[in-house]
Amino acid sequence: MGLFFSPTKLVITSVLVFQFSAFHVAAKQVAQSAVAMPDSYSADTAKNILELGGNAVDAAIAAQFVLAVTLPEAGNIGGGGFMLIQKDGKSDFIDYRETAPSDAHRDMYLDEQGNVIPNRSIYGIHASGVPGSVAGMWLAHKKHGTVEWKKLVQPAVTLAEQGFVVPPKLAQGVSNYISYLNEQKIDVNFEKYFAGLKANEKFTQPELAKTLKRIRDDGQAGFYEGETANIIEKFMRKHGGIITKADLKNYTAKSRTPLKASWNGYEVLTSPPPSSGGIAILQWLKMYELQKLHNEVAHNSSSYVHLLSEIGKRVFADRAEYLGDPDFFDVPVNALINEIYLKKRMADISLTAISTTEKIKPGLKESEQTTHFSIVDKMGNAVANTTTINLGFGSGVVVEGAGFILNDEMDDFSAKPGVMNAFGALGGKANEIQPHKRMLSSMTPTILLKDNTVKMVTGSPGGTTIISSVYQSILNAIEFNMSADQVVNVPRFHHQLWPKNVIRVHEGLNDAVKVELQKMGYTIDERHFGDMHVIINKDGELDAASENSGRGKSIVF
Ligand code: GLY
């Protein structure tokens, strides 16, 4: 399919990070709040909710709904995500990942010869999992919210009904996407809904406004039951899709225990399966730390890029073999982040030579759009939220009558062992398609704590590159003591075992370093990835930043 290399097909996921009210008594109070958001509408809404006395979860919920209106590449009610919460000194992880419909089956994307049918899990009516976002927000609100639900959904209703002024970068993204759909002769209805979106002009979404009103008035049932569910099922039947009213009614968001591990004097609080990201960043950070005992390497030098790429090979070999939905597959979480295991795992890494891709096996025996935001409130609570419809603008399908874009998250399953998905990721039994199962994700909303105080809130979009953005943001902030602005804007890089010895790098990585890496045998793929929105707490002072390349906005107040 080659979408991993396509400049036009973006992959969008969003992460939201918030810090809440009523922080643990032992925790140091911060007088400031901060939001680091993927656009100005979500930033201003989150700030308003915090100023009205809401906590970080309230702000996150309101922002999630606003992004469904103003960031159609990734913001959504037709997708899913993960919300990591540190509130009142306790942590929670709301898993609102999409699930496979009940009629889904392992070979649903294969033709009669057993080959993967190109594009079927990426565009059109067959690409979508059962959406989880509304149920996720509802569960987060029930467990942690303080502001009335209606007040949190209303800003999105207003923006959909009365319109929002379109940022030029969004207009460009929509225009590129429509051209791509036309060039590739992909038959979806995206253009019908979004062709009228023009830079610096108001864009209204009346059908979406009505759907949001039902959610505002009836909560979770406003999406999964009644009129919205009827519209979705009718639309699915008309076009041959398989999501039913029963699938919608049975969808449940889950509260899971976040992964926690000590690293470098901090407690890293991160995403458990069905995210692959939490295990991956812990493997990456711990192996880096073990290596550091022997050799120090300078930030973004060729040795640094090579070392972290070598670690990445091992991380992604484990990901392909062992990671999937924990409700369906026994994920060996503790074994994978065990230090003795990781020491053995890195024993054959050389700082001067590339290991052979084909020889890196799982160790136990084995355009990326999404959106992320981070919020910290003045009571010291935090939320990191990442949400996605998978690739940019999801499946390209808008539910007629309900006005929202459906995800193409089914592509995050492994359609066939040994066949890469749109992110170049491989998978096997752990991540094969089964009814009601959650597809493996790379979304990695993460919070760093010290003495139970929030020190950093981080996350990014970018499919499998999310994992590299997140672990490098932590190294940049903690190991290399960078400001939030430096953390999000310093060039990053990504390697994931396959494609063989290809390192994807941001523009700006030193030319001499790139030449040295090429001499070692790497291929350099210079393409930006991610859109980080990070908050750092330095001695009680909050520092927030959004990446320059995106249309994000960060405010400390
Ligand atoms: N859809 C991208 C991810 O969840 O990893």
Automatic annotation (TrEMBL):
Cleaved by autocatalysis into a large and a small subunit. Its EC number is 2.3.2.2, 3.4.19.13. InterPro entries: GGT_bact, GGT_CS, GGT_lsub, GGT_peptidase, GGT_ssub_C, Ntn_hydrolases_N. It comes from the Bacteria. Signal peptide: none annotated. The keyword Ribonucleoprotein does not apply. Pathway: Sulfur metabolism; glutathione metabolism. Keywords: Acyltransferase, Glutathione biosynthesis, Hydrolase, Transferase, Zymogen. It catalyses: an S-substituted glutathione + H2O = an S-substituted L-cysteinylglycine + L-glutamate; an N-terminal (5-L-glutamyl)-[peptide] + an alpha-amino acid = 5-L-glutamyl amino acid + an N-terminal L-alpha-aminoacyl-[peptide]; glutathione + H2O = L-cysteinylglycine + L-glutamate. GO terms for molecular function: leukotriene C4 gamma-glutamyl transferase activity. Belongs to the gamma-glutamyltransferase family. This is Glutathione hydrolase proenzyme. It comes from Pseudoalteromonas marina. The gene is ggt.
